[in-house]
Write a structure and sequence with these properties.
The complex is a heterotrimer of chains A (about 130), B (about 400) and C (about 325). Chain A is an alpha+beta fold and about 130 residues long. Chain A is about 10% helix and about 15% strand. Chain B folds into two domains: about 240 residues, Thiamin diphosphate (ThDP)-binding fold, Pyr/PP domains (Rossmann fold, 3-Layer(aba) Sandwich); about 140 residues, Rossmann fold (3-Layer(aba) Sandwich), CATH 3.40.50. Classes of the chains: A alpha+beta (about 130), B alpha/beta (about 400), C alpha/beta (about 325). Strand 9 of chain B pairs parallel with strand 2 of chain C.
Amino acid sequence: MEYKGWDEFEIGAMLRSFDGAIDDIAGTAQADRKYSENNSYKASVADWRVLKPVFNKDYCIDCQFCWIFCPDVSIIARDKKMIGIDMDHCKGCGICVEVCPTNPKSLLMFLDHADSEAELAAWPEKDEEE
Amino acid sequence: MAFDKMELRDIEVWDGNHAAAQALRQCQVDVICAYPITPSTPIVEGYAQFKADNYIEGEYVLVESEHAAMSGCIGASAAGGRVATATSSQGLALMVETLYQAAGMRLPIILNIVNRALAAPLNVNGDHSDMYLCRDSGWIQFDAFSPQEAYDLNMIAFRVSEDHDVRIPSIINQDGFLTSHTAQGVHTITDDVVYNFVGTFKPMNDMLDFEHPVTHGVQTEEDWHFEHKARQHNDMMTVVPDKIENAFSDFEKLTGRKYNKVECYDMDGADIAIVCMGTSVETVREVVSEMRKDGLKVGVVGLRVVRPFPFAEIGDTLKDIKAVAALDRSAPGGAAGMLFNEISGSLFNTDSKMLLSGFIYGLGGRDLTKANIRDLYKELQANVDAGKVLTKQQQFIGVRGPKLAYL
Amino acid sequence: MSEIKKIKNLKDFSTSADRFEGANVLCPGCAHSIIVREILNATNDDLVLSASTGCLEVCTAVYPYTSWDASWIHIGFENCSTSIAGAESMYNALKTKGRLKQPDRNPKFIAFGGDGASYDIGLQWISGCMERNHNMMYVVLDNEVYANTGGQRSSSTPLGGSNTTTPAGTISYGEKQNKKDLMGIMAAHNIPYAAQVSPNKWKDLVKKVQKGFATEGAVFINAVSACTTEWKFEPKDTMLLSDLSTDSLVFPLYEVIDGRELNITYRPKNVVPVEEYLAAQGRFKHLFRDEYKHLIKEWQTRVDENWDYLNRREAARV
């Protein structure tokens, strides 16, 4: 966000989460909210990542372990389905991969600059030893 | 259960603590978080009795420390309502961290400080050490010289602090025991008239507005902190003074009682003057009126508004005065007294030829006697006659042992 | 009283619309935000939140950004309990006076403090709030260290941990004190509800938090928060460490009702030796030197004794 002069912001160093009024926050999906420019939802920590998770929906059973244990609100769940990863907010911790119970895993970590399509094409087979 | 209004006589005999408690009751404070400490305890107790007798509709939270008192006040104020408390001395010292937070977060809390010395050594009596402790905390500070003023200034403080252009908390100081425990006649205002004067609290950035969630108490580092503190100071310097004037003027229309940032008594044609705060103003006034009868051109200036410091008004008041004594009732800790410094600042770089001398007095509740004051005026007159300050610039008065003078 | 949100399973839970946002600056793999998400998502009611100075606070409200979609306040290190108690008092006052802007809501008042803010510097403030029985929930994000400032010991730091102010060295095994029993202290306030939780056992956590939300009065929640940075494990292993902490019984999950009735809420099928819990963390690495191995035994004994104590308390129903 742009730096502002001392006379250009509201008093008390307070911040608003949303632009305008929001009636039912808990009932409004993130995608449908009018976040203010001060909401960290509008920011990105993508440059923190060394590794990134890649999601392979072919194996996903929508157990939502990745959703609940993601510290960065980066697993996008819609109607009880896992539909993807919010790559602006994912810091690449790898918890989602660790908690993924499928075999092979539906999420794997790769270098952040890896080509996801290529990684999906080369997804490992089921591990028979498990 | 609806709360009860209280019928008051036109003039009640109240001490400063009771006057403050009554004012808080009449302003219908929404939340008070408080912790008792001498000599402000009777404010906390008095309010508790009002609550017990159904004169209070708001919440009264008896917390476990002064720090918690102001912490609770900050949470309550940020939630969006009228908030106040009271403390003294060590309690204020414990509270100091949160005073800065309240001011920085622009929360219009009202704090009654019943002034008392700071330990060590421990002392429960009145001096202005606690007032001085928080003078840079970013709070507006009023000073009451009497129970009447403690009563009136509470209402004025709510008016000023809660103004959406201000949103800066206020302290009302009164002298421990000499004001807080000394009953005097107080002209009362009826409950309805007081509440009408302060008005129903108008929330701003309130946490309890669930449709507009707000984050209070953020972290700012070197990239943002300076701008926020600059804004705070700017509003104190440019917005607050006029708002105080307006509140004083509205209060005068309501009651006929006129307050000024700098209170002048017998200053017309005065050659020499004492500047002081608290009950000392009243003591000096008495001496001055006696000395005036003897034809001496003496006057006294009482500081009503300590912060924002009324530089211009002090400068105007004192520019033609030949010699002035600044009385500081706080151990200066290795510097000139606060009043000495601020008065110097008000007149430095002007054409004033005023001779200024500073006096440290009354620590830990030591009396300032009329004899002390007469001596002091004599000294000022001697300075005028000599055309220079004949003594050191800082002297201690009223203390036993060899004379103490510095600077 | 508001309705309790129905969360039968994780799929149900995943329909929650988070009120805590990403792009906060907590470490990758931080358990704090997992706990916070589980707690906030346990209700659909409005929230009024506070945080004490600490990791959660400094990482979620760095001007000009906030990660909070509900009203939130931070004052200082020691007083998030009292600040939320103040807000709750204002709510009650405005309710009485008929001045609430949205009078039909059922807001939940929650304070979050780290173990430094709770076990140490803020203990008195929390005690006051619990004693006065404010209608609020106090949550400790217990990572057993002053993590925000770089790993200094707190009174939650367990014996033998190497921390920056109690480092292991040539003549020291690190922290010399056992962890303070804050649950015991809080339960001794005879508050309506106190519980210990861990984010890996999300269902247990949500159930307890919902119980807390349904409680009139003060609720205390102690949540173990595995700290990748100071416990010294890889960020991806946060849930593994959470599992180890609950399944080794180092961090048993239980609740205390009205300061009396103690219920153990999770009994691991396979109890993991404490040694495995310790071995998974760099902060205990030195304990595996020959001269300190007796401490690992001591650890196991202490954990066993505590588990035994909790079981006896539960059985005694007193």
